[in-house]
Amino acid sequence: MKHRVRKSTSDIIFEIVVVVFMVCFVTITLYPVINTIALSFNDGIDAVRGGIYLWPRKFSLKNYKTVFAMQNIWVGARVTVARTIIATVTSLFANALLAFVVSRKRFLFKSQLSLFWVITMYVNGGMIPIFLLYKNLGLTGTFHVYWIPGMISAFNMLVMRTYMEGIPESLEESAQLDGAGYFTIFKDIVSPLCKPVYATIALFIAVWQWNSWFDAMLYNRMKTEYTTLQYELMKLLSSVMQQSGSAENAKNGAATITPITIRSAVTVATMLPIVCLYPFLQRYFVTGLTIGGVKE
Amino acid sequence: MARNKNEEKKERKITVKELKRQSFLLIVSFVVVVYGIIFYYLPLTGWIMAFENYKPKKGLLGSTFVGLDKFKFLFGDDVFIKVIRNTFAMGVINLVTTTVMAVLFAILLNEIRRSWIKKPIQTISYLPHFLSWIVVTSILHVSLSPTGIVNDLLLRFGIINQAINFFAFPKYFWPIVAFANCWKETGWNAIIYLSAITAIDPALYEAASIDGADRLQKIRYITFPGIKPTFLILLLMNVGNVLNAGFEVQYLLGNGLVQSVSQTIDIYVLKWGISQNDYSLGTAAGLFKSAVSIAIILIANSIAKKYSDQRLF
């Protein structure tokens, strides 16, 4: 019983608006990214003239050769990969275990433990006390500052808790009748059913780790062996930003310390792994966000 | 009846057998509570620094107590007053623009029926969320540079006759930050609105069609009310973050020329606390931010409780 309704004028105008909006949206989202990629493959001196849009004018791989010859980029890349892997594994495990504990309906301190973590979402010591704490604990100037302090996050834990609460209690009860302890229930019954939400949270953590730069700057500024990829890019960028803020440059534009093409090449190298990966994980983060995000 | 249940619960609590049975849960709880106390609750004791002249050598308890002196200094400092203004202004502007864009995008995307168009647009819309602020500001910097696309288009259409250095003028800074936030998060924020729209009963739309409603009317009378609860709860969650909305972009895009509009509380804390080593002043500024944030959350929550059934806690 489909009604074939004739389109009214207002509907046609509306459809045009939708199309125009979407074309603009997609263009504005994609253009700067494509432009950056085009610049990264363009000859450095030629690029100063401007006028490069979607495709390099004078093709060159020199930018990438320069970038890959930078020692600190490789150090940054290694540290970034290491922290992403280590933090994702440890943090996922810790959050999952905690979510499992607070989602047990019969657990004696269920509500108290939840509250303990929910409070941390709203109240925190702030930059200076946290900085001093890490300093006193001997975490500053080490690699461990990247994965130990943020291991448990209340938000990620709550998303997983919501998901776990949806798993029927009867599964747990029947396993207990068979003599299974809580760790076995966590490992063999709850975790296999939680794969989608684990994937979501793992993605959140990994992206967060990959994109971090502030902790590298704050805690490991003096330790070049613990620099990260994003922090190296930030250093290149900030020298340029300082320049564009100086008076004479404001007048005549262009001239930069690091050529725009080199910066583009680092930018592309930094974002490439994530850009290639995220489309395949879409299903997970969309469901994960919808389940955990706004419920309650 | 309720009391009975409670008593039953209490009775279960005392038994040694139950404690033993839950020993694994209790051990995990103990470990995470210790972890939480160290990394989340212990820094709170650092707030004491805001009320003293903290010297690392003398420690938290040995430093001289100065009462509200640090706060008096803060509010006597013209820079700090500007910093508060900047933080609030950019927080509110960002919240409004990103919410409007997310709702608009979700509604318009939902109007596209063909999934081979809809799916790719959605995938593209998530892309910027996965880029770091460093990458985003780097890209933005290229686009807004004197030879970048924005100046190029403006020159071509004769709107300006000389390239503008957008980062050199305070009047452009807040719009640039708002745009950067929208560019990065619109697609991501729209996910929740899209799922809320999908949850609306299709029968409502069918009934409206039969009554002769056009698409705009359907959006106005069905989609808007349908996503209102989601909208309210997200707003409630985000107003508390208004003061947190300003650090990375401002820090990365700010420079000497736009300092008066780009500095936020977090940047101020970083500057005084870490760079100048005045831990007490930095903590005082941070404490002020935390206190205001918590106050905003509590007020928003009680308003929400009074006027609708939405609330956070």
What do you see in this structure?
The complex is a heterodimer of chains A (296) and B (313). Chain A is mainly α and 296 residues long. Chain A has one domain: MetI-like fold (Orthogonal Bundle). Chain A is 71% helix and 0% strand. Residues 247-256 of chain A have low confidence and may be disordered. Chain B has 313 residues and is mainly alpha-helical. Chain B folds into two domains: 2-65, no CATH class; 72-307, MetI-like fold, CATH 1.10.3720.10. Chain B has a two-stranded antiparallel ribbon. The longest helix of chain B has 33 residues, at 78-110. At the A-B interface, helix 1, helix 4, helix 5, helix 6 and helix 10 of A face helix 3, helix 6, helix 7, helix 8 and helix 10 of B.
* Average pLDDT figure of chain B: 88
Main β-sheet of chain A, in a few words?
none
The tally of helices of chain A reads 14
Low-confidence stretches of chain B: 1-8
Give the CATH H-level superfamily of chain A.
Answer: MetI-like
> Portion of residues in helices of chain A?
over 70%
Through-space gap between termini of chain A: 38 Å
CATH homologous superfamily of the largest domain in chain B?
MetI-like
Oligomerization category of the chains in this entry? heterodimer
Number of strands of chain A: 0
Structural class of chain B: mainly alpha
List keywords for this structure.
heterodimer; A: 296 residues; mainly alpha; MetI-like fold; B: 313 residues; 2 domains; two-stranded antiparallel ribbon; 16 helices; 74% helix; 1% strand; globular; disordered N terminus
Topology:
The complex is a heterodimer of chains A (296) and B (313).
Chain A: H1 9-40, H2 44-47, H3 62-69, H4 71-102, H5 110-122, H6 127-136, H7 154-165, H8 169-177, H9 182-193, H10 195-211, H11 214-219, H12 229-245, H13 247-252, H14 260-292
Chain B: H1 2-14, H2 16-21, H3 23-45, E1 52-53, H4 59-62, E2 64-65, H5 69-76, H6 78-110, H7 115-126, H8 133-144, H9 149-156, H10 170-198, H11 202-210, H12 215-239, H13 248-253, H14 259-262, H15 265-275, H16 279-307
Antiparallel strand pairs in B: 1-2
